[in-house]
């Protein structure tokens, strides 16, 4: 929960910080270590970048790379450090990164610490949830949904705290609060170890020791499961490229084209980032009950079907934003557009994200489960980076056309999952 509070506090402020402060003032930008190199590299590939496209690209790189490094974090945990040590190291690095964000000239260095720390933390905290249950335990999906609820409690609180401090008091206060959240998370994680059973021996090392260092070939069933997961990872890219507009172009919509005045009080636009985690807290248990009832009647959809439903709902959410763009004129629009969009989008997320995490822990071969979890996050890396690239079209397209593009991409992912449902299910067994 505390780790997500730190991450989403950072996410709520990042684009606004770049657009309204760091990049809009040339003197400030020039003082940032590595600014000219980053800007020059991006413009080499994409041509001259104005402030918003530049901020979108940096946002995409950051949110993408925090999903790229978990691939290596999984390998490090499986082969050398073990999951718990790797999680602790990652938390320390992230805490350092958040505090460095308070110094604007160290902006890119701070992002590097956050990216590397996330890589160590992210895949190994998820696989530890899976380790709490025996193979085939039907409670595992519910556990991941509960896990998802816990981390989203932190995600709900962070924009209210970090976002308000950043927009109303000072950017450094907002980023500093995110760092405090990370330190609290490390303390809870460290002192809470005594309440759970000792972590099982490093699986990869145990298998290697049992076979005296021999290379263990995968069975035919394991190979089919790995290839099925790779296909789902490819489609996962499209989902996250669209979904991550929440922290990018949707935050700009919330800031520039939404009325946040309530009874004379101007609410910070970063509070929009609390809508999604709040909706998860509300709908995650309801979906858990719904799926359990379906399971008792033997009507619960397969994991792949759930993921296809999630992508269709993501498309529907951006369909609502098309209507919002057509309705909002010169005046700022109602916040209800964002509320309804977020509810639909969130239900779609719950049908895909925790289900995908659970699926990896179910079907990946035990000796490479952390690495496969890293691969799942690697697909999210590509999707998150693509979200930054897609966001560069926000200013050059009409708003309704941009949201229409997001809806079309989501439909493509959903139709592809539905089309591959049968062969994927045969490869994944009964999952």
Write a structural description.
It is a single chain. With 431 residues, the chain is mainly α. The protein has one domain: MFS general substrate transporter like domains (Growth Hormone, Chain: A, Up-down Bundle). It is built from 18 helices and two strands. The chain has helices at residues 2-22, 26-31, 35-46, 51-68, 70-81, 83-100, 107-131, 140-169, 171-191, 203-210, 220-243, 249-256, 275-296, 303-327, 336-363, 369-391, 399-419, 421-428; strands at 261-262, 265-266. A two-stranded antiparallel sheet has the order 1-2. A hairpin with a 2-residue loop joins strand 1 (261-262) and strand 2 (265-266). The longest helix has 30 residues, at 140-169.
From the structure above, extract its key features.
mainly alpha; single chain; 77% helix; Growth Hormone, Chain: A; two-stranded antiparallel sheet
SSE diagram, text form:
Elements: H1 2-22, H2 26-31, H3 35-46, H4 51-68, H5 70-81, H6 83-100, H7 107-131, H8 140-169, H9 171-191, H10 203-210, H11 220-243, H12 249-256, E1 261-262, E2 265-266, H13 275-296, H14 303-327, H15 336-363, H16 369-391, H17 399-419, H18 421-428
Antiparallel strand pairs: 1-2
Helix pairs in contact: 1-4, 1-8, 1-9, 4-7, 4-16, 5-6, 5-7, 5-16, 6-7, 6-9, 7-16, 8-9, 8-13, 8-15, 11-15, 11-16, 11-17, 11-18, 13-15, 14-15, 14-17, 15-16
Please summarize what this structure is.
The protein has 431 residues and is mainly alpha-helical. The protein has helices at 2-22, 26-31, 35-46, 51-68, 70-81, 83-100, 107-131, 140-169, 171-191, 203-210, 220-243, 249-256, 275-296, 303-327, 336-363, 369-391, 399-419, 421-428; strands at 261-262, 265-266. A two-stranded antiparallel ribbon has the order 1-2.
